[in-house]
Design goal:
4-stranded antiparallel sheet, about 50% helix
Length: about 190
Amino acid sequence: NAWEQYLLEGEYALATLHAVDPTPAEVEAFYETVKDRFAQVTSAHVLVVVTPDSAKVMRLIQGVAAGKGLREAAQAADPSLAVSDETLRFPNADPEWNQAAMALAQMQPNQYLNPQRTPAGWRIAQLLEKQQAPTPYARVPESVRQSIAQHLLDTAREKAFAVYADSLQKALKPTILTENLARVQWPTVTRR
């Protein structure tokens, strides 16, 4: 009921009242423990095919989905398709490659970027290898810093409430009345 919910929320507020916002130093220290999750691609070695023909793109995607490498899939889709071998540095002069950098950071070697529409046509790229480096804390966006701070605050509140709940169990020593349990209509389990 509403009254019980109100009391429970009040108890939670009292139990977690001493949990304070983390300091900027605490946020930075936590970031250092998880900074690999925020790694940026510094360079990537890729195979690339660009074609304005969407039918060739579909045949290329079908070949890739069948387990062929990009070179083999391009050859099967159309022998005239050129496959270029490129080493990209980031940030890149090409804005489309800069947009793809976040996806590349999440990819493993031999995975493919989703086809990208570029001024030259559809671009299909296969990642061969990459180098990554964590983002220095000074360049971490404020939204990420706030998210980390909220995570630390939530964790502190959970710990404070767990300590409070444990102290209640010790102070109140719950007793189980077996005669009350006998009157409860327990659900029955049917097996098939």
